[in-house]
UniProtKB/TrEMBL annotation, chain B:
Protein name: ABC transporter permease
Signal peptide: none
UniProt keyword Transport present: yes
GO cellular component, one term: plasma membrane
Organism expressing this protein natively: Thalassococcus profundi
Location of the ABC transmembrane type-1 domain: 84-277
């Protein structure tokens, strides 16, 4: 699905070059749920943006769905969920979800059924006519996920979508996201800086470390696809979490 | 509404009190002069009455302006050259045309500045320079040049209005069209949106609050432009003409009534834009 080989990305800044990514190699298979975890500055968001053709790598190759990120973007192969919900205040929830569909030229009738379907998927039915400010932060973020699901993209790229939400809401949304992933069989790349979140959600966890941004460990999760919230108290879960923590420590992520 | 009534009335009352007091102070020398020539002694009440009822006072009292306004607005037929409604319409039509042209020009320049790198680097300094030139110096030249080209009447005045009113629209709309943040623009990119879609669905709606604020300033500037544009035409018609004629003949009451009329026009037009703004933003869910 997504394939990166010896990827390098250097930003030229006034304080000299910043190595955002160095020698990043990764393969993401269809239906995988891959989390990227690491301290700030480790390049996890940059890597996601490279996949989305929002940043250009300085060296190396990336393919998304077998083509370059730019072609994948033009083919609307992925949905991107940003850190902030980014809903347009002048559009209703329904109107916001309709926005990419309008841009992509879906028919009016098709738009209606799709809006209904994805609102159902994120449990926001009945909120179609509400404006964003009438919804809580968690509901807004769900609406933004619905928007990314509304068109037929097999890949979902999520950049700390629940970072700004409190833990209770976050738990709930994590559970919903897992259910959604199982039902839709999408391939999800998920950036986070929460260890429990990464372990709970992912089939694979990519541990990254900064200066230069690189991958230090890739952990295959032994947890089953079906995951109730209390799986987080099992020894298997804690073992994976421990390995992630070790990986972060090995990458000197805990310095400073 | 109720809560603001008392403070507003208090301020209005204070303004009237100051105005009447100032009328006594400014007109008293003339009243004393007249009395001295007639060998009369004025009591205080007589002096006050005299300062508030002169034909060509330095500062007319509010009720004198009110009477003049009543005479020229209500009593005269609107087609009469003495009707203030007639003159107001002359000025208003130039104001509205100039405002429309200025808003359109400002809008077009803003789009150019936002989307074209060369315009972004080059246009703004000229736009700012255009506003540093005193309009009073430019206005007669515009009138004369356009007259030589066979244009007279409404259009030259509207051009001066446009000259003043496009500026706030350019500045406001450049800011407004650039108000979407990097994330919103990235988001459009992830959907592979075209430039037209980005403009219509993101930049334009985002700029609405800026547009209305700019338009309010532009409308007020446009009225000033129209009045200034009427001064060098030889004072034929319009509020500017009334101001000029009034100052030629020392008709201070006429000047003040024209000023009040101009203020009322500006208030009504800016108020109308404000009402449209509230309506539009409310429908957009932004107010």
């Amino acid at each position: 699905m997504i394939y990166a080989k010896s990827l390098d990305l250097t930003f030229e800044t006034n304080d000299g070059p910043v190595h955002a990514l160095r020698d990043v190699n990764l393969e993401v298979g269809k239906g995988d749920f891959v989390s990227f975890i690491g301290p700030s500055g480790c390049g996890k968001t940059t890597f996601l943006r490279v996949m989305a053709d929002l940043e250009q790598p300085t060296a190396g190759t990336v393919t998304v769905n077998g083509v370059s990120p730019e072609e994948a973007r033009r083919a609307r192969a992925y949905g991107y969920v940003f850190q902030a919900a980014g809903l347009y205040p002048w559009r209703t929830i329904g109107g916001n979800i309709r926005l990419p569909l309008e841009i992509m030229g879906y028919s009016k009738a098709d738009q209606d059924t799709r809006v209904k379907r994805v609102l159902d998927l994120v449990e926001l039915s009945g909120f179609e006519k509400k404006f964003p400010w009438q919804l809580s932060g968690g509901m807004q973020q769900r609406a933004s996920i619905a928007r990314a699901l509304a068109f037929d993209a097999d890949i979902l790229l999520m950049d700390e979508p629940f970072g700004a939400l409190d833990e209770i809401v976050r738990d709930h949304l994590n559970e919903q996201l897992l259910a959604l992933w199982r039902r839709t069989e999408k391939t999800i790349c998920f950036v986070t800086h929460s260890i429990p979140e990464a372990v709970y959600l992912s089939t694979r966890i990519v541990v990254m470390s900064p200066r230069p941004g690189r991958i230090t460990d890739v952990i295959e999760s032994p947890l089953p696809r079906e995951r109730p919230l209390d799986i987080r108290d099992t020894p298997e879960f804690l073992e994976v979490a421990h390995r992630v923590r070790e990986g972060l420590r090995a990458g000197h992520a805990y310095e400073e | 509404m109720r809560q603001s009534l008392i403070p507003v009335l208090t301020i209005v009352a204070a303004i009237f009190a100051i105005w009447y007091a100032a009328a006594i102070w400014l007109n008293a020398p003339w009243a004393r002069d007249v009395a001295a020539r007639g060998d009369q002694e004025l009591s205080v009440t007589e002096l006050v009455a005299a300062t508030w009822s002169q034909e060509k006072p330095k500062l007319p009292a509010p009720h004198q302006v009110a009477v003049e306004l009543y005479d020229t607005v209500i009593d005269k037929k609107v087609t009469s050259k003495r009707s203030l409604v007639y003159h107001s319409w002359i000025t208003l039509s130039a104001t509205l045309l100039g405002f429309a042209l200025g808003t359109a020009l400002g809008f077009a320049l803003a789009i150019g500045i936002v989307y074209n790198r060369v315009m972004d680097k080059s246009v703004m300094p000229w736009v700012i320079a255009s506003q540093t030139v005193p309009i009073l110096a430019i206005a007669p030249m515009i009138i004369v040049v356009l007259n030589a080209m066979g244009l007279s009447g409404l259009l030259p005045k509207a051009m001066i209005s446009m000259y003043l009113s496009f500026f706030p629209v350019v500045v406001g709309m450049v800011k407004g069209l650039r108000s979407p943040d990097a994330m919103q623009l990235d988001q459009m990119r992830t959907w592979n949106a075209g430039a037209a879609q980005e403009f219509l669905k993101l930049r334009l709606p985002s700029s609405m609050p800026y547009l209305f604020t700019s338009m309010k300033i532009a409308m007020a500037a446009s009225l000033v432009g129209a009045i200034v544009g009427e001064l060098p035409t030889g004072a034929v018609a319009g509020l500017g003409a009334r101001l000029l004629a009034g100052s030629y003949y020392g008709q201070t009451i006429q000047i003040w009534s024209a000023l009040i009329m101009a203020a009322v026009l500006a208030a009504v037009m800016v108020g109308t834009i404000g009402a449209v703004q509230r309506l539009v933003l409310k429908r957009m869910g932004m107010a």
